[in-house]
Amino acid sequence: MDRPFLIAMGATSVLTAGVAMGAYLYGIRNSDETTARTFAFATLVVSQLLLSLGCRSMTRPLWHASVRSSLMLPGVVLGTILVQLCVHRNETLAGIKKTTTLGWGQCAALFALAAVPRLVMELGKAIGAGWSTSQSSGLPKGSAEGAL
């Protein structure tokens, strides 16, 4: 493990924990403990799913990755997010998971909050020192053609 990898992992961990804790604190201030735990859980799960999309490269932003490199991953992530949404919208499933049901607005806000770590990491890749593109290939300097 090299230093850039450890820094990226640390930053990702802090961002993910921060948004989950923020969701929990918002829930505990505006509702009860069960709702706060539901907010934190939903945020953490969706955040981790979104992070899985961009961890194939430490230097190339998600929008520059080859779609052909992993066709199933976006489908699995989307399917899992839909299951998560069903759990939080269905009273029976929420009861099994010991969470509360959430409104559409709450789900949208939590999902947007959960996207923050992924967005920050992707923007960091895009503006980072390693992302200077060459005029000829449009790939980062030093990257291998066809990687990813």
List the keywords.
single chain; 148 residues; mainly alpha; 66% helix
What does this structure look like?
The chain is globular. It has one domain (about 5-125). α2 (about 35-55) runs parallel beside α6. By secondary structure, it is an all-alpha fold. It has 6 helices and no strands. It has helices at about 5-30, 35-55, 70-90, 90-95, 105-115, 115-125. Helices cover about 65% and strands about 0% of the residues.
What do the pLDDT scores average to?
A: 83
Helix run count? 6
Kindly give the count of domains.
1
Regarding quaternary structure, what we see is: single chain
Shape by Cα distribution:
globular
Rg of Cα set: 18 Å
Number of strands: 0
Strand content: under 5%
Note poorly predicted spans.
Answer: 131-148
- What order do the SSEs take from the amino end to the carboxyl end, as H and E? HHHHHH
Q: What summary fits the major beta sheet?
A: none
Helix proportion range? 55-70%
Question: Roughly how many Å apart are the termini?
Answer: 20 Å
Structural class: mainly alpha
